[in-house]
């Protein structure tokens, strides 16, 4: 089995997966001509993050199909009553967004393809090996070129070898593409319900983290973890043990592309943290494009559902927002733009499109050459029209929801709760908002939880009175119970220090307060900075406290972090899931520190407040 080094040496989740896809569609150079691509639910999502359907089909791929869907695989029709959820869960995907097994890349299978070759890309699970064994017992294709998205256990490889009676399998390889590349510096496992993990979900997380390292061909020079999290400690120790025990990880240790050069001083830090250290960030309203879409509309597998939105045409009921190069230049440029900047940018996008489309009106076609030019540009104009309509529709719905939900008023108070201490003033304003009919029930819930988190340990914290006011304000009892759930999960007795500046010096706190005041009203909706950014800043300066973030050493876990080299690359893995606010801040950090240090953020899933609260209900 081969381990492939992608051309770009920079930590980049999208580039790593795109390189694998380029090799995949040619069978790694050994499957030329028209072919069929067979996927499972998880690998379908992975490919769709970096490639469009038309891109895949243009690479001599006749058909894309699902091996695990009876509607696409005739070998499964007699087993169509099987429980498909077990397959989805084992693959680690979010089956709620799987559209019943049909995806934009999963086309309806056609007959008469027996002469074609099949390229198979699956997660290395028991279920998928079972599907392959069944497929090979009644092969539909002349050859099978099989690729697994992670390390294939020897027993499953042996089972596969023993069940190819017609010798149709021509190659088996491992391509370490076992995660969703959302942005170049943001990758996710799309694993829900990981605030408290089952053993199966834990295994999925450790395999996904292994894949992130292998896809980028990195062996960490240092592995550190959040001391307050038992789960982060276990994950860090297990990934360290796996690296030491498997030769596949033994390549250039800690080499980095931070400065674009390779030398022995470069160093990759793997930092394993836990969502519970910062329960505030997932509860806040968002004001940058990508984060705002996820919070208000939902952004899952790069897809936004606009079905039911007022005045949205049928072709815009489901749209794609992808950061992959060549997919949507506007979104790529503006995914981190704030709401005000975004409105201006979309207005300019619309004006530019209107100017170009007027040049190509039928009334302006005066010659055969004009008509030929129009026909050549028509596909581009049509694509541009869809892009403009998509962003205008999304912006219109975001603006509507901001007004309907009084989000500017709510968000300003959220930011105040997250960033300043004023118990008396906050309690008075909170009670007013809980009594207000203009504040929506979900927002009342989030405000109550933010108050409880900040003032949990304060004398006379008034949390019982807040719960009673929430009840009077229409918050259902099962939602009010989430205040106790969030304090149990991430209260002051559980989480590490630093959420409200408890491990910062007085000078540091004063500086942050001063910067917030001088930036003024324009910054009122973006005062909050996630705890993660304090952690990153400390790490790149060599000031990450060993008492809070110990290092995994050869003898187990220790605190010996003195004299560690400054990292030029940092891979952060957040157990329990990260947010787009954190991803935005990481992206801004990378832009500001280009050529010096680079951070890539990975984790179990990408939360909005809704998904975070749903998982809290399970605690």
3D structure, described in words:
The protein is α/β, with parallel strands linked by helices and 619 residues long. The chain has helices spanning 13-24, 41-50, 53-57, 84-91, 126-137, 154-161, 199-215, 230-245, 289-296, 329-334, 339-359, 368-404, 407-419, 423-435, 441-455, 463-472, 477-480, 482-490, 506-519, 531-540, 580-592, 609-616; strands spanning 35-39, 61-66, 117-122, 143-148, 169-174, 180-183, 186-188, 222-225, 268-274, 303-305, 318-320, 551-553, 556-558, 569-575, 578-579, 598-603, 606-607. The protein is built from 22 helices and 17 strands.
Tally of individual helices: 22
- In helices, the fraction of residues equals 40-55%
Low-confidence stretches: 1-7, 81-89, 95-102, 106-110, 255-265, 504-522
Strand percentage: 5-15%
Secondary-structure map with pairings?
Blueprint lengths: L12 H12 L10 E5 L1 H10 L2 H5 L3 E6 L17 H8 L25 E6 L3 H12 L5 E6 L5 H8 L7 E6 L5 E4 L2 E3 L10 H17 L6 E4 L4 H16 L22 E7 L14 H8 L6 E3 L12 E3 L8 H6 L4 H21 L8 H37 L2 H13 L3 H13 L5 H15 L7 H10 L4 H4 L1 H9 L15 H14 L11 H10 L10 E3 L2 E3 L10 E7 L2 E2 H13 L5 E6 L2 E2 L1 H8 L3
Parallel strand pairs: 1-2, 1-3, 3-4, 4-5, 7-16, 8-9, 9-14, 14-16, 15-17
Antiparallel strand pairs: 6-7, 10-11, 12-13
Helix pairs in contact: 1-2, 5-6, 11-12, 13-14, 13-15, 14-15, 14-16, 15-16, 15-18
């Amino acid at each position: 089995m081969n381990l492939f080094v992608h051309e770009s040496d920079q930590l980049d989740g999208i580039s790593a997966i795109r390189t694998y896809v380029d090799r995949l569609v040619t069978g790694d150079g050994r499957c030329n001509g028209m072919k069929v691509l067979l996927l499972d639910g998880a690998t379908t999502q992975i490919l769709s993050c970096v490639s469009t359907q038309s891109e895949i089909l243009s690479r001599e791929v006749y058909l894309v199909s699902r091996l695990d869907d009876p509607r696409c695989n005739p070998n499964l029709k007699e087993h169509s009553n099987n429980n498909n959820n077990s397959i989805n869960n084992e693959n680690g995907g979010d089956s709620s967004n799987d559209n019943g097994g049909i995806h934009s890349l999963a086309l309806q299978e056609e007959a008469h393809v027996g002469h074609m070759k099949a390229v198979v890309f699956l997660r290395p699970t028991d279920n998928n090996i079972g599907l392959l064994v069944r497929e090979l017992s009644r092969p539909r294709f002349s050859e099978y070129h099989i690729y697994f998205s992670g390390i294939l256990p020897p027993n499953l490889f042996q089972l596969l070898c023993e069940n190819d009676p017609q010798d149709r399998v021509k190659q088996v390889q491992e391509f370490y593409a076992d995660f969703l590349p959302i942005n170049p510096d943001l990758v996710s496992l799309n694993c829900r319900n990981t605030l408290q993990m089952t053993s199966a979900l834990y295994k999925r997380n450790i395999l996904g983290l292994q894949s992130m390292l292998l896809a980028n061909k990195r062996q960490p020079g240092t592995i550190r973890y959040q001391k307050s999290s038992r789960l982060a400690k276990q994950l860090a120790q297990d990934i360290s043990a796996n690296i030491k025990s498997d030769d596949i990880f033994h390549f250039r240790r800690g080499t980095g592309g931070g400065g674009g050069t390779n030398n022995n001083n470069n160093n990759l830090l793997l930092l394993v943290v836990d969502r519970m250290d910062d329960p505030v960030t997932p509860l806040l309203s968002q004001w940058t494009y990508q984060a705002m879409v996820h919070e208000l509309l939902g952004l899952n597998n790069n897809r936004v559902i606009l079905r039911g939105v007022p005045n949205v045409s049928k072709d815009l009921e489901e749209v794609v927002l992808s950061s992959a190069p060549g997919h949507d230049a506007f979104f790529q440029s503006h995914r981190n733009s704030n709401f005000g900047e975004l409105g201006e940018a979309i207005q300019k996008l619309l004006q530019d499109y209107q100017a170009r489309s007027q040049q190509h009106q039928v009334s302006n076609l005066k010659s055969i050459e004009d008509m030929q030019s129009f026909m050549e540009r028509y596909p581009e104009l049509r694509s541009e029209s869809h892009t403009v309509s998509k962003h205008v529709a999304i912006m219109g719905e975001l603006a509507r929801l901001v007004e309907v939900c009084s989000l500017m008023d709510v968000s300003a108070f959220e930011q105040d709760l997250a960033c300043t201490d004023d118990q008396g003033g906050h309690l008075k304003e909170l009670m007013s908002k809980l009594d207000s009919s203009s504040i929506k029930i979900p927002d009342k819930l989030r405000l109550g939880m933010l108050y409880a988190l900040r003032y949990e340990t304060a004398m006379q914290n008034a949390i019982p009175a807040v719960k009673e006011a929430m009840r009077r304000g229409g918050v259902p009892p099962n939602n009010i119970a989430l205040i106790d759930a969030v304090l149990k999960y991430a209260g002051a007795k559980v989480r590490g220090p630093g959420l409200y500046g408890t491990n910062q010096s007085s000078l540091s706190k004063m500086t942050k307060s001063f910067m917030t005041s001088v930036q003024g009203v324009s910054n009122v909706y973006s005062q909050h900075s996630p705890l993660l950014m304090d952690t990153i800043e400390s790490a790149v300066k060599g000031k990450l406290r060993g008492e809070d973030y110990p290092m995994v050493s050869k003898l187990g876990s220790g605190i010996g972090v003195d004299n560690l080299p400054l990292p030029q690359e940092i891979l952060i893995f957040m157990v329990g899931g990260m947010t787009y606010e954190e991803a935005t801040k990481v992206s801004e950090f990378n832009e500001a520190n280009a050529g010096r240090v680079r951070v890539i953020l990975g984790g179990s899933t990408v939360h909005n407040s809704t998904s975070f609260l749903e998982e809290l209900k399970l605690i």
